[in-house]
Specification:
By secondary structure, this protein is of the alpha/beta class. Helix content is about 50%, strand content about 20%. The strands form four sheets. It has a five-stranded parallel β-sheet with strand order 2-1-3-4-5, sandwiched between helices. The protein has a five-stranded antiparallel β-sheet with strand order 7-6-10-9-8.
């Protein structure tokens, strides 16, 4: 504060006060009346006005009101005579910063000026703080808007489907990636649909449990599953998601979906190419296999001829058994080749998986007894009637249990009580797990890594080298997978995971692809 407008109708007071204020370093302008003061104020806008109340024409209160109208930030000190306290109070009500009595004393004026200066400084600081705060708020708003726009573009441009809900599970975010997968238009989903109308029951159940239960899973790792699109197409996807929190409260969910249709198509193409390549290799392998079989047939026919010639029933029987075994091997080889080389769609129908497992175990019970192997069953009682391809289940289990019995036969530890265990388990994601375990010879990692390659067999001349390839092909055609764990001398466990559908919902298997 440096410029002061001094207003009084008494020239002597103007002169004396002006001299005093200038001596204190102020730039002082003087006015002998209210009208003149307003003219000077409008032109020079001083920070402080000191005005007498009692003046002819426009009085000090009117000067105060006009000055405040022009610039509310200007401080005004009122000079009053004794007994004019009411006017002074009125002046304070109109925004005067202070008042001093006549005759004006230097100390009193100094205190009033100091108060006015402090008010001006406080106002200036408030303006600066306000300006700084506004700038910070504006900068923060710009940053939030920038991040929001970036995230919005990120969500829109993502190839993955992104779906978010509020705490009531109503869908609030549904990006173009999700629109491509689910098929529903954006305007028909956002703020209109809940997850129950979009997700499968399994995914819906995961999220509802995460939202409503205290110790439920709230982070859902990536997993393969399938969703049903608006057109009714079953689409393979990878899914992950999580429950969202705000201030410690659950406020919604977000789910991510990766469309696996193209990947699955490429996998099928690759599998087909591998299969065709294997069929090509079959020419060489088949020649070798047939050669062994022919040797067996020749050996058998030689014994038969010898038995007839010498009327030796024992040789005749051994020769005929050898011929029958090689006829069986020929049949197995031809059937495996046909199964492996032919495209086949799974044929879903209602069945009881535990009954299939029991049938396989019963079918091979005699062979197991002959080999001194015990077959045990551990079947999940919660598995009831479901819809899946029973022929695939039967063929796969038959191959695995047969291999398990043979693995016991090849075990050199004759002190063991050999066992083969067939187990079933109902898993959460509409999948049934089949385990076939044996405590036979086991395999090294090098051997187990080559199990699913064509014409690789651990059975020597007794195996075709196609059984496990056929099993894997059938399992993958069913949308499942097969794993193997083995330890030399301890045994092997093959595990098949096969998806199923609820019984009574037979559909065309083409939709599985």
């Amino acid at each position: 504060m440096n410029r002061i407008l001094l207003v009084d109708d008494e020239p002597d007071i103007l002169r004396v006060l002006g001299i005093s204020l200038r001596a204190d370093g102020y730039q002082v302008r003087t006015a002998g009346g209210g009208e003149e003061a307003l003219t000077i104020f409008a032109r020079e806008t001083p920070e402080l006005v000191i005005t007498d109340i009692k003046m002819p024409g426009m009085n000090g209160i009117e000067v105060l009101r006009e000055v405040k109208n022009i610039n509310p930030e200007t401080e005004v000190i009122i000079i009053t005579g004794h007994g004019d306290i009411d006017s002074a109070i009125e002046a304070l009500q109109y925004g005067a910063s202070d008042f001093i009595n006549k005759p004006v004393r230097d100390q009193q004026l100094s205190i009033a000026l100091k108060r006015a200066q402090e008010k001006i400084q406080i106002k200036q600081q408030l303006r600066e703080y306000t300006t700084s705060l506004e700038q910070k708020v504006e900068a923060a708003t710009r940053e939030i808007r920038r991040r929001s726009n970036f995230q919005s573009k990120l969500i829109r441009s993502s190839n993955n489907g992104i779906v978010a809900t509020d705490k009531d599970l109503k869908i609030v975010i549904y990006n173009p990636g999700a629109e491509k997968i689910f098929g529903y238009p954006h305007h028909g989903v956002v703020h209109r649909m809940q997850i129950q109308e979009l997700y499968t029951p399994q995914i819906t159940d995961l999220i509802i449990r995460g939202m409503t239960q205290e110790n439920a899973l709230e982070e859902f790792p990536w997993q393969e599953t399938s969703i049903l699109s608006e057109s009714g197409e079953v689409i393979p996807v990878r899914f992950s998601g999580s429950i969202l929190h705000e201030k410690g409260q659950k406020m919604g969910s977000v789910a991510f979906f990766q469309d696996l249709r193209e990947i699955k198509r490429l996998e099928r193409e690759l599998l087909k190419a591998e299969r065709l390549a294997a069929v090509g290799q079959t020419v060489a392998g088949l020649a070798h296999g047939l050669k062994n079989i022919l040797h067996g047939l020749k050996g058998g026919s030689y014994l038969v001829d010898l038995g007839i010639k010498k009327d030796d029933t024992e040789k005749l029987k051994n020769g005929w058994d050898m011929i029958k075994r090689n006829i069986g091997r020929t049949s197995e080889l031809v059937m495996d080749l046909l199964t492996y080389s032919k495209e086949r769609e799974p044929e879903f129908e209602d069945c009881f998986p535990n009954e299939i497992a029991t049938e396989v175990a019963d079918l091979l019970a005699e062979k197991a007894r002959e080999s001194q192997v015990e077959i045990k069953k551990s079947l999940d009682p919660s598995i009831s009637q479901v819809s899946m391809d029973p022929r695939i289940v039967h063929t796969a289990l038959l191959n695995l249990v047969t291999n398990a019995i043979d693995a016991c036969l090849f075990d050199e530890d004759t002190g063991k009580t050999w066992q083969v265990v067939v187990a079933t388990t109902l898993e959460d994601d509409n999948t049934i797990r089949f385990d076939v375990s044996d405590n036979g010879a086991g395999m090294s990692k090098n051997v187990s890594d080559r199990l699913f390659t064509s014409f690789f067999s651990t059975k020597g001349h007794r195996g075709t080298g196609l059984g496990l390839m056929v099993t894997r092909k059938l399992v993958e055609e069913h949308g499942g997978r097969i794993d193997v764990i083995s330890s030399p001398g301890k045994g092997t466990t093959f595990t098949i995971h096969l998806p199923f559908e609820a019984a009574g919902q037979k559909e065309t298997t083409s939709s599985k692809k």
